[in-house]
Amino acid sequence: MSLHGLVVDTLRLTLWLALLAAILVPVERFLELRPSVRTARRTLADLGFYFFNSLIPAFLLGFPVAALAATAHRLLPAAYFDGLNALPLWVQLVATFVVGEIGFYWGHRWSHQIPALWHFHALHHRPEQLDWLVNTRAHPVDIVFGRLCGLAPIYLIGLAGRGAGEGNLPAILFAIGGTIWGFLIHANIRWAPRWLEPILSTPRFHHWHHVKGGSGPIDRNFASMLPVVDRLFGTLHMPEGKAWPEAYGVEETVPARPAPKASAVSA
Q1: Are 239 and 266 in contact (CB under 8 A)?
Q2: Helix (H/G/I), strand (E/B), else coil: 223
Q3: How many angstroms separate the Cα of 198 from the Cα of each of 35, 150, 208?
């Protein structure tokens, strides 16, 4: 990463941050779910996470993503890519988001179930108050692993085109869309459109993922955008009689948990 590239990327991220803040700060103010106290120290820490986790994981993912693209190019025939490229763009996008979501779901779920991965992922679950900037509070190892799990199946089945830098618009849109949506679903807003919940993840859907043990079933709602993936694998939790969790955070003495049983899921 050159100095010029670093400066350009930092300016780009600053513009994105300003845009997100211009939208989500007033939305949180007018649709506030719970009173939130954001100190200057906490804000500076989250801003540091925002820039660090936007720059470093993107750099670290370059080689494995290129390797995945090269592997797909070697294993899949040219006619296969030609057939995919002949599909309408919207079909490619839908397929990419579904495949990527399934990959991300399992990466996220493993991050809760495997102690070595939970060691890094727990940082994201420690905040006891949720707002849009909490989306940035994560360990870079966790960020890299989660994104790689989402991107790997997209590249391996050829949905990203023949190369890591050519014809991979669907994969780019999946990564950008998931990142932007992540800010919304962490937001401290009482927006919970029940008609949308079966289709797209909402703040209520993801807030239940951050529930603290004792306030509701933990290790649920792993998908980033498509709740149907959690329904498919038996981890959806959207209680009817209790709209929002009472508390957020982690029980520090509790290690990573085993896989939830489908019979324990409520929807």
Answers
A1: yes
A2: coil
A3: 28, 21, 15
Cβ neighbors of 67 (< 8 A, separation 6 or more) are none
**Residue 259 and residue 161: Cα distance in Å, rounded?**
34
Tokens of 56: 């470093």
Cα angle, residue 249 at apex, residues 244 and 252 outer, rounded to 5° = 150
230 and 206 Cβ atoms separated by less than 8 Å: no
- Under a CB-based contact definition with an 8 Å cutoff, are residues 173 and 194 in contact? no
Torsion of CA 161, 162, 165, 171, to 10 degrees: 30
Encoded tokens for 257: 């948990």
Distance of CA 179 to CAs 130, 138, 224, Å? 16, 13, 9
The answer to whether 212 and 249 have CB atoms below 8 angstroms apart is yes
pLDDT single digits (tens) 197-220: 999 999 999 999 999 987 678 899
CA distance 16 to 173: 15
Angstrom distances, CA of residue 167 to CA of 81, 157, 257: 10, 14, 40
Which two tokens mark 77?
A: 């025939």
- pLDDT tens per residue across span 20-77: 999 999 999 999 999 988 899 999 999 999 999 999 988 889 889 889 888 888 888 8
Backbone angles phi, psi at 166, to 5 degrees: -135, 125
Q: Identify whether the C-beta of residue 120 lies closer than 8 Å to the C-beta of residue 111.
A: yes
User: In the beta sheet, which residues pair with residue 166?
Assistant: 163
